[in-house]
Amino acid sequence: MALHRIKLLQPAFIGISSCLVLVLVFFASNSYAQVNPSNIELKIRNIDGVVAVVNTGVVTRKEIDDRIASLQKQGSTGGKKLPEGEELRKQVLENLILEKIQIQEADQTGLAVSNKDLNKIIEDIAVRNKLSLADFRQAIIKTGISFERYSELLREDVLKSRLREREVDSQIKISDAEIDNFIVEQMQRRGTDTGAARASGPEEIAVAQIFIPVEEGAGPSAQADARKKAESILKEARGDADFMQLGAQANKENSKIKFQDLGYRTQDRLPQIFVETVRNLGPGQVASSVIRSPAGFHVLKVMDRRSSGSGARAASNANPLDTTPQNMMVTQTLARHILIRQRQGLQDADVERRLLRYRDQIRAKTADFDSLAKKFSEDGSAQNGGVLGWMGPGDLVPPFEIAMNRLQIGEVSDPVKTEFGWHLIQVMERRDAQLTVEKQREFARAAIRERKFEQAYQDWLRQLRDTATVKILNVDEQYR
Known about the structure:
Blueprint: H1 20-30, H2 40-45, E1 50-54, E2 57-60, H3 61-77, H4 86-108, H5 115-128, H6 133-142, H7 147-167, H8 176-200, E3 203-213, H9 220-237, H10 243-253, E4 258-266, H11 272-278, E5 291-293, E6 296-307, E7 328-341, H12 348-363, H13 369-376, E8 387-391, H14 398-405, E9 416-418, E10 421-435, H15 437-467, E11 470-472
Antiparallel strand pairs: 1-2, 1-11, 3-4, 3-6, 5-6, 7-8, 7-10, 9-10
Helix pairs in contact: 3-4, 4-7, 8-15
């Protein structure tokens, strides 16, 4: 789909192969083998080794310890080790429980990954890492894991991915009427703006946000906690509390929570989900509900609205409320980035310092963005110098798009964090382009699907978890 979000929004197991280390880390840290049902009774008798019984399987202390050891090994790569503690063990246990449930569900519904399919996937990964199969096998063994074990972990990841595609992706239905309504809303909004702008220019909206991030791969419990915090902030914001002071207080309590006044922006320079949320809000009004984006939860407030005084960009001779399909003008940005992916144990402060060093080198012209991206970026765009191509409104995750839209042509950003990691962004060029009716429908379908998918996926995980029989043994009360 031409206008579907770029690779920044599609982190799939097949695509994580820009470097060998990332491939190995991803698969080594996200799957552990399911217990053989024939050994369950014997394992349960060995109570000291079992932390949880999950339907017909178990989670053992060794699995938890192995997972933590794997995470700590990744952390040492970034120069830091993960802190030990009850919270880490609880998160690891919950992730293992969810993995067991998904593998069991896949087995029960007849899903399988044949040896032929698995071998083809392994060959593809080796090719993406520019290695022969024999060299790739040796590289796996050097990490301390047998190739057979790696293959089984990979098989489980593929199985979970196929289960999700069947149970979630395939169940998301988007009707032509939904697409039509989405486009009509867009045209009415743009048409109204154009009509008002004929004398005074397009409207600009000053929006402020308080952002509660959700780490990539966070379990249902962590996501529920983040939503609860966001809704608590929203409740206060809708009262008499000063919005920016409220954000500052939340940041003081938890430095990961961010708050910012985005300043005056035309609608085409705001993330689409922001535009939809504040569309009917007047100055000083707070959004009625929390926004969920792939990066986390957002609480929004309209600080002000004004006319920019410039000519309307989306000129049209049509009536402002005319909803007849027509091409629309949008501002597209050509940008490039350097991405350092998130992974357990890699401290934010270390990544920020690293990207600030790259930024300073680019500004001092002792290094160029293209070569740094090719050498250090952990994204598929690295081979192209980090160039992402022409992107329109809503094509990128909100934190990235917001930061990109604030840059002048040629300017390099400070480090920007999204759910995918930390980015250094440079705007190369901007242009006005027509969005054809056909492209509008593609964009609408992608936007609607994304909006529906996150909720559907979380609902599905909760349903699996709620219908499973999970017993946390008393011997491990600290994991509750």
